UniProtKB/TrEMBL annotation:
Pfam family for this entry, one: DDE_Tnp_1_assoc
Domain of life: Bacteria
Similarity-based family: Belongs to the transposase 11 family.
Residue ranges annotated for the H repeat-associated protein N-terminal domain, each copy included: 8-94
Protein name: ISAs1 family transposase
InterPro entries to which the protein is assigned, alphabetical: ISAs1_transpos, Transposase_11-like, YbfD_N
Length: 150
């Protein structure tokens, strides 16, 4: 099952919270967040709502001993994890679930994120290059670049 593989990959992400203050496991919060976002959640409150609605499903893969965390807790915990570690975890999970073969075409595409240019702070636009598996309709890798190029 793919979510069991996800839980294995999530375990590489370090939890820097003080253990005596932890009410919800990091793995539970990340499982909830990933499932909710894949299902269309667009904000922290949507993620919390998804969790409340799908708690029985989520308990098949995580503990959720204290139920679903509130949206403020989800936001705080997710904002404190290492983006690089999360990226590594997610990409490795995707690769584990969908191995590439000779029939797969990997498309490389670059995008400039809208509204990422900030003239007042002298910040240039953010440019991202993505690798996309056409067979699985899945982004298998993504990196930020310093400048746009062809």
């Amino acid at each position: 099952m793919e979510l069991k593989k996800l839980m294995e990959h999530i375990s590489i992400i370090p939890d820097y919270r003080q253990t005596w203050k932890v009410e919800h496991k990091l793995s539970d919060i990340l499982l909830l967040t990933i499932c909710a976002v894949i299902s269309g959640a667009e904000g922290w409150e949507d993620i919390e709502d998804f969790g409340e609605t799908h708690l029985d499903f989520l308990k098949q893969y995580g503990d959720f001993e204290n139920g679903i965390p509130v949206h403020d807790t989800i936001a705080r915990v997710v904002s404190c994890i290492s983006p690089a570690k999360f990226h590594e975890c997610f990409i490795n999970w995707m690769r584990d679930c969908h191995s590439s073969d000779d029939k797969d075409v990997i498309a490389i595409d670059g995008k400039t994120l809208r509204h990422s240019y900030d003239k007042s702070r002298r910040r240039g636009a953010i440019h991202v290059i993505s690798a996309f598996s056409t067979m699985h309709s899945l982004v298998i890798g993504q990196i930020k670049t310093d400048e746009k190029s062809n």
